[in-house]
Automatic annotation (TrEMBL):
Keywords: ATP-binding, DNA-binding, Isomerase, Nucleotide-binding. It catalyses: Couples ATP hydrolysis with the unwinding of duplex DNA by translocating in the 3'-5' direction. Belongs to the helicase family. RecQ subfamily. Residues 244-404 form the Helicase C-terminal domain. One of its GO terms (cellular component) is chromosome. This is DNA 3'-5' helicase. GO terms for biological process: double-strand break repair via homologous recombination. It comes from Puccinia coronata f. sp. avenae. InterPro entries: DEAD/DEAH_box_helicase_dom, Helicase_ATP-bd, Helicase_C-like, P-loop_NTPase. Pfam families: DEAD (PF00270), Helicase_C (PF00271). Its EC number is 5.6.2.4.
Amino acid sequence: MDNKNQHKQPSATGITLLKKMTEKSNGSLSNAIGHRALSRYSVPAKPLQIDTVVQLARGKNVVLLAGTGFGKSRIAEIYYDLVPKHTKGVVLVLNPLDALGNNQVSEKKAAGFVAINLTKLTFNPTKAPKIRHGEYSFVYLSPEIFLNSKLFSSIYFSAEFQSRLALVVVDEAHLIYHWGMVKSTRGKKKTSALATCPPKPLRAIQRNLRMDSANLVTLRGELTRPEIRIIRVFMKGSMALFADLADLYLPISGTPNMKIVPSLIYCNTQRRTGQALEVLANARGTPNDSSKARSLFARRYHSVTGEQDKQDVERDFGEGVFPVITCTMALGLGQNWTHVRSVVHMGQGDPSAICQMIGCCGRDGKPGLAILFVEKTRTNGKNSISQFKAGVDQSDDDRMDALAVTPVCLRIAFAVDNLYGYIPLSTQDDVYQVEMARKKSQGFVGCRCSNCLPAEASRLMKHMGNLSIDIFDDVVLSDLHTNGPAKEIRKTTSHQRVNEDPLSAEETKDFQTELMTTATSWISPRLGEHSFLCAQDIFGPDEIYAIIKKIDTLEDEEDVRVVVGGHHFTGIGSDGLVVH
């Protein structure tokens, strides 16, 4: 072989890759990696997957940005295939959430690898020697264990484990921006896999992982998922009630559970996952279903859900036992459930996180539907384009508000946010026009989001209750007409919709102030100076808004409790407090 084509073995880790592979030129190495991947998976590896493995084999640190469903987790498997079997090399994967680790461990086991997810419950002194001796090819763990566990530190910094450490992978690496500094990995080759990451967090990741720019390669794939249709909907009701979810489903007599579109409904608090279950159960005509742990329609998942319940939800949903999960981000943003077809997000949220949430649908390449319920008026937020100053960088809160009001194509808005860290508010935005031209030049199918096709989106939402898995593809990919496969069926409710504005603007403002002042003055003295709650945690803007919207129907104290979702309890104060 010519000297110019010879490559020295990278010395960043204690593992030496197969000599016959590393001595190849980049072109030959790429071909060899592609052949090995095809032999293992029976499908060709993507060029960007191969390029990432080549860079790692040359001793480079890699930051990879690619859309959800790209196949980032497979890159570590392809790289591991270059590690000599006798070395018992280990790939260490940092996951932000235990649920993601469980999901990926299942995938690795199905692919023939030995893997373990280290959690507070599974990581103990019995497992430690097995990890050190290389009995697990893939070790998944959370940042908490990686940073704070003395037992894991004793393993990680041992000479034996360092000699086996082939690769460190940081999955969903943009969350490092929230974790803070991660301890040095002592020059080990690292790959950071991200589906979305604006520039500011990306710079923080490089700094926190101590990636030397001279040895760093950033690879970018396509972040846009054209198969996902995005519908933004202004909520008619309050975030405290989640009543808008009822419009998505018919009674069970109209659409049986087995025909419901597999969906994830993301809520912003643990309590609201339960509230969502209640609304859905009432919409289905099965009000008692919300309290059933083994419901065949919908279950919930959040950080305080019991470990066994979490496993049951993950397993049963993956096997198609029930079609809907109401959840918080504790479920994870990178779950590889290929049968998920729809994602619903309730309320305000970080655009990068929302982009990943909606990326959970359509992972099998089939059409997906993302529904973003946003508040028309957000307390202390910017509720119109005129409130944004031209030429001023958007803060994180501004990006959240901008996503709710922007009139531009939502698909391009997410793409611009991922690349440049802001939501465009005009089709005349220079970056917006460049991205639109790029998508046209690359032959992207026309966008069908609610900003591009508002009339069609409105018609779709009116008929959402009829949407079954049998007609899902046709409805998402084409216009829905009233004489088409779905017919609108109006649900009857036991209550009438009250006047949208029962009070004048001036009366509403005065009433809001009076409610807040009265509630604060009554609650604050009962909390005590060492309470972990403040008055607005118990009675705040959500509760006030709910009361105002239902003011014409409130007759007694019990009606108020129902509207704000509260009850009495004793413990924090000498009297009962209305809490939610």
